[in-house]
């Protein structure tokens, strides 16, 4: 009896490792890069770990949100603009406010942006217009609102709020404990929601085959809307993290555009297939940190920052080709 139980448990572990090989590989790659970076600079300690973890927060949040939407079979090109909108609203509303009011504003923005993006998901589901078209249009709308709310960089937030994301009330220095906690908490929450709840399993099902999911009795529209709601909430969290890191708001369109592209890159590098239905948000978390680390690593080895963008693009293209090949081989073996 005990032997049978152990055999079953071993089989489950092996199956889990086989399904999540890519995610495990991305985390191993992150570990290897950290070790390599530690050998490239004279001193590697708390300051470097804190810097990497807190600077990764906005991209990691966006990557988590984008991953859920992509797993559901969509893509959201407006997440960077939602970051800008939250950034502008937070900097404008939180300036000179006590910490309790700042927290209330933060919760309100996360809930509000989640509902706003859920509406976008509903429009996509009802209209049948491709996600890429609708979210490209809404991205321009949210960016415009951000500029209207905050025409130029400015505003601020409470020192205690900056401490939540950076470990220091000034946003400079601090410890890596708070940034890592603020990174891990939403990542684990969204992971558990996506893998251990009915709505999460529905999100995976519609990404794999929306027609089959509908025939199986799943509420396809609800799953689609839920994925966009999570994406919007995570984009809001990214905007709040940006305010905490910089201490101000910045409505520049280029910031949002780069954030969106990097979120898609993190999703691809994290092993989430762009066709939907496969991958884990935890892989996107590691990939987001890796993308943030690339520039300091390349600078440490003496590569020009302009050429670093080329290397990053080649890396993403290579990963996409490898991912496509792996998917093709799996389909053939199936």
Q: Can you tell me about this structure?
A:
- The protein has one domain: Orthogonal Bundle (ABC transporter involved in vitamin B12 uptake, BtuC).
- Helices cover 80% and strands 0% of the residues.
- The protein contains 13 helices and no strands.
- It has helices at 2-19, 21-40, 46-71, 79-94, 99-127, 131-149, 159-166, 177-196, 198-215, 220-246, 253-269, 281-300, 305-333.
- The radius of gyration is 20 Å and the shape is globular.
- The model has no long low-confidence stretch (mean pLDDT 86).
Reading the helices and strands in chain order gives HHHHHHHHHHHHH
- What is the averaged pLDDT score? 86
- What is the radius of gyration computed over CA atoms, rounded to a whole number of angstroms? 20 Å
| Overall body shape | globular
Largest sheet composition: none
By secondary-structure content and strand pairing, the structural class works out as mainly alpha
**Share of residues in strands:** under 5%
Low-confidence stretches: none
Would you count the extended β strands for me? 0
**How many domains make up the coordinates?**
1
Helix amount? over 70%
State the end-to-end CA separation: 32 Å
Number of helices: 13
Which helices and strands occur, and which strands form pairs?
Elements: H1 2-19, H2 21-40, H3 46-71, H4 79-94, H5 99-127, H6 131-149, H7 159-166, H8 177-196, H9 198-215, H10 220-246, H11 253-269, H12 281-300, H13 305-333
Helix pairs in contact: 2-12, 3-8, 3-9, 3-10, 3-11, 3-12, 4-5, 4-6, 4-10, 4-11, 5-6, 5-10, 7-10, 8-9, 9-10, 11-12, 12-13
